[in-house]
Specification:
single chain; alpha+beta; 2 domains; 8-stranded mixed β-sheet; 3-stranded antiparallel β-sheet; 13 strands; about 45% helix; about 20% strand
Amino acid sequence: MQAIVSATMVSQPVVSLRYRVGRSPEAWELPEGPVPESTAHDAALFRIYSLLSAWAMRSANGARIARNLALRWLPQYPKTGLDPDIAVLWPGPADFDELSSYRLWEANRAPPPFVVEVVSKSHPYKDYSWVHEGYAEMGVAELLVFDPQLFGPKSLGGPAALQLWERDLTGAFERTHAGDAPVFSKSLEAWLFVDQRKLCISDDRAGKRLWPTLEEAAAAKAGAEARAEALQARAEADRAQAEADRAQAEADRAQAEADRAQAEAGQSKAEAGQAKAEAERARAEAELAKAEAQRDRAVRAELEARVRELEAKRTPG
C-alpha cells in the first residue's frame, strides 16, 4: 500500500513523498486498556460523534458511528489494529450494539469509508507521523485528522487544524489537504471546516446549511413539532370560531324569522281588529239607517193621517 504526503502549509512549498508502507504487523498492535484524554478532547469527539450520528439517522443510509472501536484487518495477527476516535461503518453491521472489535476478515465487514482522529496534547506525534499508514493498509477511504487546539509538532509540518487523507483510484493514500480552510469529504459528500475550535459539517462550502448534532436535531424536531401543534391548535381554534360564527348566524336568522312571524301575527291581529271595527261601524250604520227608515215611515204615516184628517174636514157632511 502506498502513502503520499503533500506539504500544503501556506508558508511552505508543496512537496510530495511517495513510499510503501512496510511496518511489521506488531507495530500496529493495540495497547491494552483505554488511553486517558482531556475533557476538551472528549468534548470534540462527542460533537463529531453527535454530528455523524444525526447524519446517519437523518439520511437512513444504514451507516453506524463508532467511538474508539478496535479495527483489525489481519486475521493472523488478531491483536493488530487501530482504534480510531470516530469511525463510520457502512454498511453498519447487524451486531453493531454488541461489538467489542471490528474484524475486517469476517463476513459483511467493509473498511470504514471515513475515520476521524482528534489530536491530543498527550500524544500528538502519532496523528502527524504514522497513523495514516495504518489506515492506508486497512483500506480506509478517508481519514480526517482534526487538531482543534493546534498541538501538532512543527517538525512534522504542523500544526494544521484539518488534514484530510484520501484514497485515489490507484489505491494510494494521499494527504490532499492540510490547513484551516474548508475541505470537501467525498465519503460524506459535505464540507468540513473549523469554527471556534469546533468541527462543523455543512452541505455547502459557505457553511449556510450546517449539519446539526443529535441535540440540535432533537431541538429542531421538537420545535417543528411544537410549531405544527401550534398551527393545528390555531386551525382548530379558527374552525371552532367559524362553527360558533355559523351557529350565531343561524341563531340570528332564527330570531329574525321569529321576529318576522311575530310582526306578521301582530299585523294580522291589527287587521282583524280593523275588520271588526269596520264590521261594527257597518252594523251601526245599518242600525242608524234602519232607525232613520222607521222614523221616515212614522213621519210619513203621521203626515198621511193628517192629510186624511184634513180632507175629511173639508168634505161637507
